[in-house]
Design goal:
Blueprint lengths: L4 E3 L9 H7 L8 E3 L9 H5 L3 H12 L5 H11 L12 E4 L2 E5 L9 H5 L2 H11 L5 E7 L3 H10 L5 E8 L5 H8 L6 E7 L2 H12 L2 H9 L2 E5 L5 H20 L9 E6 L4 H11 L4 E8 L4 H8 L1 E3 L20 H8 L4 H14 L1 E3 L2 H4 L5 E5 L2 H15 L5 H17 L5 E5 L7 H8 L8 H12 L5 H8 L6 E4 L3 H9 L2
Parallel strand pairs: 4-14, 5-6, 5-8, 6-7, 7-15, 9-10, 9-14, 10-13
Antiparallel strand pairs: 1-2, 3-4, 11-12
The protein binds pyridoxal-5'-phosphate (PLP).
Pyridoxal-5'-phosphate binds next to helix 12.
Length: 495
């Protein structure tokens, strides 16, 4: 059955999957959503006998229906290969009564690799299918991890350029070093004077600039997005939830059909939305537990039905979740509004105008799959130390937010269903915060000294991604104000 994609904001014609991937964002500013969520057509038993690549194919073929089997398998095999440091791609580690789904074994050691290692292949295939002659210019705003993963995915990919904007003072030193050392003639990395929301809003503005789009087209370029609003990122993320369930079954930890809970450390709401889609495909998921840090706008939303971004933006030790406008939530809002684009647009207009909206009781009643909570900075650090001291397993700060929220959920509900916690980054990416949480004596050590220390105490080899940046030269040093972003883009493209 063919799945078409519609904008959450308009009455625009539905487009194919490949067209939605190429566009990234709909012209009316909305996000593309599948007209219906397909049901899985393989049994859980069958899935439990498959490897990662096979599961990925079974999931993605149901959503990306205008890709041929050969095209899709080709994309999958080029993405999930030896760039990952483990053959299973996404290992499940049991610790302290939960299952940590390690999504950080790709090239940049954060979960963004799960989708961004395949997105360039999907996009190039989509361009070919739609006879696109223009060069594709990927514009990306990053809170730290998307940027590097997108750069790694698109660097030197023929027919593409990539421009990444990150908040100059809002990412970890290792995240920044990873980005500014990125090689590839088609890459540009820019630090903006502002926070992630400023970067994201700036990028969205450039996207919806019709005049600029026309100018670009005349010069042989067109924009697309590698942000998690792109359906080409969302769909690959559904795969690992299905795979984690299959793995639990294979390992005999759960019976076929047994419900599991899923905990996701959340920022832009992309990862947890993928879990929600997996549930709607028929995967037996009970609760979707949405974990926030001190920027707890989603926690408040799930509790009150009011989304309110009018608050102080807090810089935390889990920077990839320092977000007050969770873009992908719009896809959920559209759905609980009964796929009503007018209603959704009204709420999103209120969000960009007053910075706030309230959903109806009827809509709120449809959020019972979700549980939201948050972890403070102290709770996050305590959780890293607790798990480490109990079993020697070291969590990164984002995963620790999720793990801490899971403990709160357990206390509040007593729900003992088996639980998968999305482990979204390697602790080596946030070494200083992680080591400080374990012992204050590490405070005086240098960044890379800490890396070696962590390797010792966790008994884990230093990942290649970290080894590489130790000696790599800085090749990007551009900075700009938010209102200069458009000019920076034009300068890079020489238009
Ligand atoms: C991006 C990111 C998140 C947040 O994921 P969303 O899909 O934006 O909700 C959490 N943890 C890490 C390490 C990330 O890189």
């Amino acid at each position: 059955m063919e799945v078409l994609y519609r904008s959450t904001r308009g009455k625009e014609e539905a487009v194919t999957a490949s067209q939605a991937i190429l566009k990234g964002l709909s012209e009316d500013g909305g996000l593309f959503v599948p007209e219906q969520i397909p049901a899985m057509d393989k049994s859980l038993k069958e899935l439990s006998e498959m490897n990662y690549q096979q599961v990925a194919y079974e999931v993605m073929k149901l959503f990306l229906t205008d890709f041929t089997e050969e095209e899709l398998k080709n994309c999958i095999n080029r993405a999930y290969d030896s760039k990952f440091d483990t053959e299973v791609i996404a290992p499940l580690v049991e610790a302290q009564g939960a299952y940590y789904l390690e999504l950080f074994h790709g090239a940049t050691i954060a979960f963004k690799d799960m989708a961004l290692s395949i997105l360039p292949h999907l996009m190039i295939t989509a361009a070919r299918k739609n006879s696109i002659k223009n060069e594709i210019v990927i514009l990306t705003a990053t809170s730290g991890d998307t940027g590097k993963a997108a750069l790694a995915g698109f660097a030197d990919v023929e027919g593409t350029r990539i421009i990444v904007f990150y908040p100059k003072n809002g990412v970890s030193p290792i995240q920044e070093k990873q980005m500014v050392t990125q090689k590839g003639k088609n890459t540009l990395v820019v630090g903006i004077h502002g926070n992630f929301d400023d970067a994201q809003t700036g990028v969205k503005k450039i996207f919806s600039d019709r005049e600029l789009a026309k100018e670009l087209d005349e010069k042989g370029f067109q924009f697309s997005s590698a942000n998690s609003i792109n359906i080409g990122r969302l769909v690959p993320q559904i795969c690992y939830y299905v795979y984690s369930y299959a793995t639990l079954m294979k390992q005999g930890k759960i019976a076929e059909g047994e419900k599991i809970n899923v905990v996701v450390p959340t920022g832009n709401f992309g990862n947890i939305l993928a879990a929600f889609y997996a549930k709607n495909m028929g995967l037996p998921i009970g609760k979707l537990i949405c974990a926030s840090n001190d920027n707890k706008v989603l926690y408040d939303f799930f509790n009150t039905g009011i989304y309110d971004r009018n608050r102080e933006f807090v810089l935390t030790t889990s920077p990839s979740m320092d977000i007050l406008i969770s873009s992908n939530l719009e896809r959920l809002i559209y759905r609980i509004a009964g796929n009503d684009a007018d209603k959704n647009r009204e709420l999103m207009t209120a969000l960009s105008g007053q910075g706030k909206y309230e959903i109806t009781d009827e809509m709120k009643a449809q959020l019972s799959d979700f549980y939201g909570n948050f972890a403070t900075e102290a709770e996050t650090a305590d959780e890293i130390r607790r798990v480490y001291e109990a079993c020697g397993y070291v969590l990164d700060t984002h995963t620790a937010v999720a793990s801490s929220v899971y403990q709160k959920y357990l206390k509040a509900t007593g729900d003992v269903a088996k639980t998968v916690i999305a482990s979204t980054a390697s602790p080596f990416k946030f070494t200083r915060s992680v080591m400080n949480a374990i012992d204050s004596k590490y405070d005086t050590m240098g960044d890379f000294e800490l890396v070696d220390e962590l390797s010792g105490i966790a008994n884990v080899e230093v990942p290649k991604a970290i080894q590489e940046i130790r000696t790599a030269a800085v090749v990007h040093d551009v900075q700009c104000d938010v209102d200069e972003m458009k000019n920076v883009v034009k300068g890079f493209l020489k238009i």
